[in-house]
Amino acid sequence: MFPDGKKKALTLSYDDGVEQDRRLVEILNRYGIKAAFNINSGIQTGANTWQNGKLLVRRMNVAGLPALYAGHEVAVHSLTHPHLENLDEESIRNEFEQDMLNLERIFGKKVQGMAYPYGTFNDTVVRIVQECGLGYARGIVSTRSFDIPGDLLRFQPTCHHNDEKLMLLAESFINSKPEKPQLFYLWGHSYEFEAENNWHIIEEFCKTISGRADIAYCTNAEAFGL
Length: 226
Ligand SMILES: [Zn+2]
Description:
This protein is α/β, with parallel strands linked by helices. It has helices at residues 21-31, 65-68, 89-107, 123-131, 166-175, 190-195, 199-209, 220-223; strands spanning 8-15, 35-39, 49-52, 55-58, 73-76, 113-115, 136-138, 159-160, 182-188, 215-217. Strands 1, 2, 5, 8, 9 and 10 form a six-stranded parallel β-sheet that branches. Helix 5 links the parallel strand 8 (159-160) and strand 9.
């Protein structure tokens, strides 16, 4: 069950700590919607950039992030954003443990979950996530489902914000009267809105799905009861 005994919950998950998170947080805060922001603390600096089409994507410096993300969740995205399944065990562990330590120091809170960089993992990676005490870990394969699976360390989201069925899923979620808990879990990168000039997607989604008495608007950790 979700906060306040509700049977439906919405949560978002956005990766990489990039500059466009500022605009995304402004939108989410305006609609009372919460997200987890997944951070690579080993490269979380404005000096870390990459090209996405014509857009130069830039991570933010750490200063100011606790204020920016206040009320939301900050979660692990590994220390340096590697393909974890290609690393040896000690390196995988280091990617989680050091990111957790950094995030707990920067944000003053225990971190409870993560998003896999590139969405990829194998059984060894999942075992180490568990050994590090993280309660959930997210991939990037759309399920278009609201069911909550038993294994939260191989959790897959409902959909990406670019899913052509996004608003149909939102309507069906809004209209549903479920017996068992149902979670709408949306993920993406905020720089995609700028690169593709489609901030209206998240604005319209939030406007449609917010302010409903039967939906809990919560962080990932709250949605998973952690
Ligand atoms: Zn990422």
